[in-house]
Amino acid sequence: MNKLAKEPTAPLTQELIIEGANCGSCVNKIEKALRNVQGVKDVEMNFAMRTVAISGTANISPLIKAIEAVGYKAKLNKQNSDNDLFDAKEIADQQYSEQLIRQMWIALGLGLPLMIYSVFGGAMTVETVLERSVWLSIGLVCLGIMYFSGKHFYISAWRSFLNHNANMDTLIALGTGTAWIYSMVVVTFPTVLPEMARHVYFEATAMIIGLINLGLALELKARGRTSEAIKRLVGLQPKTARVIRGEKEIDILIEQVIVDDILRVRPGEKIPVDGLVTQGYTSIDESMLTGEPMPVEKNEEDEVVAGTLNKSGSIQFRATRIGKDTALAQIIGMVKRAQNSKPPIGRLADTISAYFVPVIMIISIVSALLWLNFGPDPSLAFAVVSATTVLIIACPCALGLATPMSVMVGVGKAAEAGVLIRNGEALQASSKITAMILDKTGTITEGAPKVTDVIVVDNHYTENYILKVAASLESASEHPLAQAIVESAIEQGIDPEMVTSFHSIAGYGVKATFNNQKLLFGNHKLMLKNLIALNGYVAKAQELAAEAKTPMYLCINNKLAAIIAVADPIKADSIGAIQRLKNNNIRVVMLTGDNRATANAVAKKVGIDEVYSEVPPEEKAKKVEELQRQSEIVGMTGDGINDAPALALANVGFAIGTGTDVAIESADITLMRGSLHGLVDAISISKATLRNVKQNLFGAFIYNAAGVPFAAGIFYPFFGVLLNPVIAGVAMALSSLTVVTNANRLRLFKAQKR
Amino acid sequence: MMIVNILGVALIALIVWWFWLYKPVRTVVDKSEIIIEVNGGVYSPASIQVPANQPFSLKFLREDQSPCSETLLIPSLDVSEQLKLGEITQINFTNLTPGEYVFHCQMQMYRGVLLVVEENKS
Lengths: 754, 122
Fold this sequence. Notes:
The structure holds two protein chains of two kinds. Chain A is α+β, with helices and mostly antiparallel strands. In chain A, helix 12 (396-416) packs parallel to helix 25 (725-745). Chain B has one domain: Cupredoxins -  blue copper proteins (Immunoglobulin-like), CATH 2.60.40.420. Chain B has one helix spanning 2-21; strands at residues 27-28, 33-39, 42-44, 47-51, 56-62, 71-74, 79-82, 88-93, 99-104, 111-117. The interface between A and B is large, with 54 and 39 residues.
């Protein structure tokens, strides 16, 4: 199996898949056989799943031998990791592509010389016996080529037909088949056809098969590129992990890591699974997941995430989530699902493609009948050519590929920028957003308030003492602003102490006793209620409020002692991102539960004109509704927890994440990075993707709508031109390739410079 | 000429009947799983009937190299799976409500339908 699993001293759990176990009694037999193997600690078989979990230090091969000895087969249950899936897929695609190219050369080997011959005026007719026998042998060679190079078309067409289904292969099989059969009739029974119609089309059959194989091979390559983004994500997952077992450190396969394993990661290595740091200190580059370029500092108890890169220090951590549960695996899962979902704009194409092939078959028959009835001589030859060409030129593929290919690339591109798009609907809706509601706290601002000002009013006290009193008071409180004060005090080396008779007065503040001093700490209303003289300090407080700070009065023994201001700093790049939103002609609205003064001050700083303050969480959804009534397509950005109802109601809900904490359930789009730029990127990528989808759909519609009538010979009465079936083959091969290539252009999309 | 025209029209009628009007025979599943072969442009069986409110699994065995067969979608159930060539991809369902669930490939060239029916009606 692998070198690493042969490390004999590691107590670990391995899982084997058992084949041939059909009865309950097998379980005992297998478990017993395994228990007798040296180093096995415990064995547990899951009969329903036909797997057996073995813990201990045993090697894998004696385990398998033991099972085989009692008459069953076993193999290591290597979970099909996404990594393997992609490797296998790449190999399979490569092989298939080589096979298609081989088949193409063989088909072109006959088709090209024949075509050159006919282009340079060679006789494609059958008159003499010699000509008949030459053409007959060419016809038979052509049949061989149809078998060797085009077998897959015919088999698929036939099987679909039996299933009352028709696909692109049906069209190719019918088109090339018609041309060949007609040519064979010309060769074998020339007399049943009018003299002028005795023309062979073997070159068309061979050329078309060759060209379509070439088209498929190229398409396969181009398709591979569309999944580059997801491949990159999948590639982030390391294949091995270094676990600490007792005194030893050993490398094991990532699939064998279990929850609560202690793992070691050295500088320059990737984090193998999600976990909590138990020892050490380091900085970790999480940019591959969040798009955030700055490395993140990690201390003990901090979370580390699989796929991110350990930069500086060596750490030990405890595995908390493994396999499909890691954030990375969930992101991959979500991106994959989204890549295959369809925006509503693609539904029409779906409906059409469900009817497409039979309709083309009918058009082909109608066209043949029209030529037979009204066409000039040789009408039969014209009928055959037009029927064949219609079948060949029609391309349901281009129509079917138009949407999924672009969505695939667009969603992948977004994921690279740290933007997770839930599905095609979210993609389409966010490309149309006309109004964006931004929550203030945690969205525009950091969401972590800090003490900004301490104004000592009563000079009996020092600033340090004031902070100590305030922090002691607030350490008993659960208010978010309280936390800011406690943290600021601790930062300055001041330890909060216990207070007595603590009371929290909702909407006002807190009161308590400390050092035999009666303390009051809270807002203006609290002071009024307790009839505290504020003298001239109201103006000072208002001044602070105008700077988006929240002033709080501290009162000791019924006398104003200090004003402490707390503010939630605005994220460094919020101003730039909001400007970008406005440049996109999006109406930007700020919504907050905070007081009007603070809200207005923040709005002014970041350049938002429309502000709704003091909105309780339950009313945020109503604001969304209100904007929707003004026929806006509303995007709502919030933290995804408090704003869940508003996010759900909005046309597109954006949850702004903190790093790799993927709180994606309530949102249509998750921004893994805290920056609002992600929001603008999401909208830009959606717009670019939708534009790309439209180009593809338009191209595919026009191609089929123009190509099919042309092939049927609609221009013949006016210009005397009829499409050659080989040209139709080229066009058809190119059309789906064009769609895939156009979708690939999206890969070059770059978010606007900040 | 008349005969040819009649033949042509008959052929059209045949196409309409065969591809659109014909209702396929359903494969009724009474076990808890069914293997669906993905090969040569079709799912076989493509029309599957299962009883409601009962856990069962669809096992897709992909034998077709064509990239079209790679993705399996059941849009109404939010299922999107990549089928690995030559292997079985299992999709488990626990409690499906009665109804018709269409499954198809990315381009809808491969199509199938899963019909979930109340036990007593089947």
